[in-house]
Amino acid sequence: MVSLTAWNKKDIKSIIDSGKFDIEFYLKENPDVKKSGLDPIIHYVLYGVHENRNPNDNFNTEIYYNLYKNVIGKNENPFAHYIRNNDHMFFFEKGLLQEYSYVSITNALNRLKKYPFFNEEDYVRMNSDVSSASMPTARHALLYGIGEGREIFSKRSIMRFLGNECKHDVNYKITDKVYGKNFPKTIGVFYHSEGNSFIQELAECLSDYLCDAGLNAKVLTEKTPEEETPELCIFCAPHEFFFLDGNEIWKRDEIIRKSIMFNTEQPQTLWFTRGILYILMSAGVMDLCYQNLKSFSDVGLPVFHFDPPVKIEACKLSEADKKHPLFRILPEKAKTGSTPFRPIAERDIDVSFFGNASRKREKFFSRSAAFFSNYQCFLYYRKADGPIPSTGVYDILSRLPRYVAENSKVALNIHRDDNCFFEWHRIVKQGLASGTIVVTEECFPHPLYKAGEHFLSETPRHMPNLVEWLIQTEDGQKEAARIQQNIFDLLQDEKIFNSKNIDLKNYISAVWSTVK
User: Fold this and answer.
1) pLDDT at residue 262, as a whole number
2) What's the per-residue H, E or C state across 56-92?
3) Strand order in the sheet with 284-287
4) Which of 36, 121, 323, 438 would staple 455 via disulfide (CB 3.0–4.6 Å)?
5) Angle at the Cα of 505 from the Cα atoms of 502 and 507, rounded to 5 degrees
6) Contact 15, 40 (CB under 8 A)
7) 17 Cβ contact list (under 8 Å, min separation 6)
8) Are 489 and 312 in contact (CB under 8 A)?
9) What CATH number corresponds to the domain at position 458?
10) 188: three-class secondary structure by DSSP
11) Are residues 262 and 374 in the same domain?
12) Is residue 248 in a domain?
């Protein structure tokens, strides 16, 4: 039997009437309360408040008391005082996110809790020191974990979710009607000028599609003057844009929460974790990976799969490119020019590959070295020391892969690790749209591109056998010609291009209706 004072009774009534005490939260964060047998609200008023326990996920008892201790009654409960005097305000710790509003942080927190890649038990298991933190696990992950570079998502949770998504059939559906009526007057598609040239390509491609859809879009960078801020911002690769220098103008709360984030990173990477904060605070998200979409839609974000077909056109190298050592080692006929429409049999490079070094790729090329030594190959295999910019010492790498592919019979795709991501836009632009035959490991299903129709899938161990069959046998050459024609038919289908424009326009209208 507990004894309640008049103040206690008054405070308890105010708390109960407000409906703001989260009993489930209180018991979860304080399992000893259940053992005490006391009503959680009574426990909080009598004991919890003195131990800096919190009545819900959005109110910090200690912070509020320190701010208002001079006006809180001697025996008055701080939470009850808040309800009676300041319930229009927020009182919780912001951690490393001081520049963002309580509304944006709360929105991101609620989304993180529902995000299928996040599991509180996994977070504590991967960050053992967090178990003693004086705040809920999800809040710690958002306010501190991301900024501190901690592991936020377990690969087990990610692969389980994506594996289930891969079981579903995906097919592209032609759309022929625009449903939206309201659109922003101006749209800026941002990329970071010091980032990866591939991101710039994506930004330019997205801007072109927006313009083709009848919207007023242009490509911008972190150097764009503040007075030129468009009505709607789309940030390509938030994991890159918001972590390279010069983005202070665009990191502001009032911009982030009204913007669309275009994720280009695989979720098992640290880069993805860096960008997730901005995704969770945004108005919508685009993604290159179709299977990623449901993870974002599950938390209430409008989603769009932007991985459009690309136009078939010959790659053009600069005069400086033609003086580069990587160009000078090409076969003589390959130096004279290129065209995606060149028949497979007339191409002078048998096999090409471009990619960063990884343990898995090292094993593949070491095991297959003797086989490839019998073929005319162009294998560019580098240890990454940062993004590949569109200017500087590596700028040729933003063009050369396409040029080489247009002169190659086969282009290989070896995943950098054990995850089955197929970097579709990059491989389509540098492979399929170059008229080469893409031979890849098994990868996530795609709505447009199908194994056996537009590319060939095989395990790394048996890839040399497939390459040999395609190049050396009559049946293999016929199969290569068939696949090449299939991809030409697909990438020249105007219905697909028009449908993608309509889908994009409908998506922009849907997001704009929530932020204007």
Assistant:
1) 97
2) CCCECHHHHHHHHCCCCCCCCCHHHHHHHHCCCCCEC
3) 217-221, 187-191, 232-236, 260-263, 284-287, 303-305
4) 438
5) 110
6) no
7) none
8) no
9) 3.40.50.2000
10) strand
11) no
12) yes
Per residue in 394-418, pLDDT (tens digit) is 788 888 999 999 999 999 999 888 7
3-state class of 421 per DSSP? coil
pLDDT tens string 44-62: 999 999 999 999 988 889 8
Distance CA 473, CA 345 (A): 11
Position 37 scores a pLDDT of 86
- Partner residues linked to 451 by β-bridges: 455
Contact 112, 101 (CB under 8 A): no
CA distance 13 to 99: 36
The verdict on 505 and 490 lying in the same domain is no
Please, what is the angle between helix 270-281 and helix 102-114, to 10°? 120
Give a yes or no: residue 150 inside a domain.
no
Check pLDDT > 90 for residue 430: no
pLDDT tens readout for residues 438-459: 999 998 899 999 999 999 999 9
Q: How many CA atoms lie less than 13 Å away from 236 in the CB half-sphere?
A: 29
Residues 446 and 507 in one domain: no
Of the candidates 271, 267, 282, the one whose C-alpha atom is nearest the C-alpha of residue 196 is 271
Q: Both 443 and 296 in a single domain?
A: no
Pairwise CA distance, residues 110 & 210, whole Å: 31
Same domain, 218 and 233: yes
Residue 357 CA to its chain's centroid (Å): 22
Q: Count of domains in the chain?
A: 3
Residue 378 and residue 254 in one domain: no
The answer to whether residues 425 and 345 belong to one domain is yes
Of the three residues 86, 111, 145, the one that is the final residue of a domain is: 86
Q: Locate tokens 């537009």: which residue?
A: 454
Q: What is the DSSP letter of 299?
A: T
Range of the domain at 55: 6-86
What's the rounded Cα separation, in Å, for the pair 22 and 312? 58
Q: Dihedral of the CA atoms 179, 183, 187, 190 (nearest 10)?
A: -50
State whether 256 and 357 are in the same domain.
no
Could you say which of 48, 68, 86 is where a domain stops? Answer: 86
Average pLDDT score, the chain? 91
Asked if residue 361 is part of any domain, the answer here is yes
- Residue 305 burial (CB count, 10 A): 22
Residue 237, CA distances (Å) to 112, 191, 251, 351 in order? 19, 7, 14, 30
Q: Would you give the DSSP letter of residue 304?
A: E
User: Please, are residues 83 and 11 in contact by the beta-carbon 8 Å criterion?
Assistant: no
Q: What is the pLDDT of residue 93?
A: 78
- Note the residue count of the chain: 516
Give me the pLDDT at residue 132, please: 63
pTM for the structure as a whole: 0.84
In a domain, 223, yes or no: yes
